[in-house]
Description:
The chain is globular, with a radius of gyration of 21 Å. By secondary structure, the chain is of the alpha/beta class. It has a five-stranded mixed sheet with strand order 3-2-1-4-5. It has helices spanning 44-62, 84-91, 105-113, 154-169, 177-186, 191-198, 203-207, 210-218, 222-242, 257-260, 266-271, 279-294, and strands at residues 7-13, 18-24, 29-35, 73-78, 99-104, 119-124, 128-134, 137-142, 250-253. It folds into two domains: 7-115 and 276-294, Nucleotidyltransferase, domain 5 (2-Layer Sandwich), CATH 3.30.420; 154-271, ATPase, nucleotide binding domain (Nucleotidyltransferase, domain 5).
Amino acid sequence: MTHSTNIFLGIDGGGTKCKARLEDAQGNLLAEATSGPANAAQHLMGSVAAVLEASEKAIANANIKGLTLNHIHTGIGLAGINIPQVKQTFLKQTLPFASWHITTDLHIACLGAHLGQDGAIVIVGTGSSGIAIHNNQQLEVGGHGFVVGDKGSGAWLGKMAVSHCLETLDGITPNNLLCEHVLSLLNCDNPYDLVSLTLEAKPAFYASIAPLILQLAASQQEDALLLVNQAATYINKLCHRLLIGNLDRLSLIGGITQPLMPYLDSQLQANIQPAKATPEQGAILYAKTKLTKTF
Length: 295
C-alpha cells in the first residue's frame, strides 16, 4: 500500500482511557480500539504510548492488508494539552503517522458535538470543564484538575461525600443516610479506615461514589440533595459562562450529565441539545481541516 491521504484516525485521550476511531474519507467506520490513560499533563510519555497502542489496535481491527500508521492522517485530542509547556513537549515527539495534529480533548469533543459549527459543550464526568467555539474563537473554562478544580464533577461529589462522612463520624454532623450508604459502599465504619482509603486515592475513586449520591438525591435524601444542588449550581454557572455572543447551541457530555440534568435551571435545559458526533469523530474532522490547510 502506498502513501495514502484517504484514511483518517481520530484519538480521544482522557484520564482513564484512550479511544481511537479509524475512518475512510467518506466517514465510514473501519475500526475502533481502546487503550489506557492518556492525560499528557499527568504522564506525557504514557500518553504517547496510549495513543500509539490505540492506533495500532485500530489498524489491527480494521484488517486492511498493508495498512500501517504511516499511511494515516491523525487528529489527536488529549487531556492536559491545554497546558502550553505540555503541548510543546508533546509536539517534539516523533509519531509515525502520515500527518498528525494535536489539540485538547475538549476541542475535539466540541467539534464532534456540533460537527465543526459554532457551539459549546460542558463535560461533567470524573472532572468538569467546558469550551465554546464562536466566530473562530475558543473559550475554555474549568479543567483545572481534581486538587483545585473539577467542581460539580463526579470526583467532586465523591470528595464532598467523604468529607461529610468524616464530619458525621466525628459527631459534628448528626447521623444520616448519606453517611451510612457511603460507609457501606466503601466497607468502612470508622474515620481511620476511611482516611486510609484516601491516602493514595485517584479522582476515579471519588467519582465511583457519585452514582450513589445522585441516587439518594433522587429519593430526596437531604444531605445528598444538598451536594447535588451545589454541583448543579456550579455547572449552571459554567454553562452560562460559555453561552457567549449569540451562541445558543450547548451539549452536555460525560458520565453524570443525565442524572444531573433535572437540577439545572429550566432556561439552560432549553438550550441543551444532543451531541451530533463523538469526540473521536471530532478529532478526525480536526485532522481533515488541518490537512486541507496544508495543501
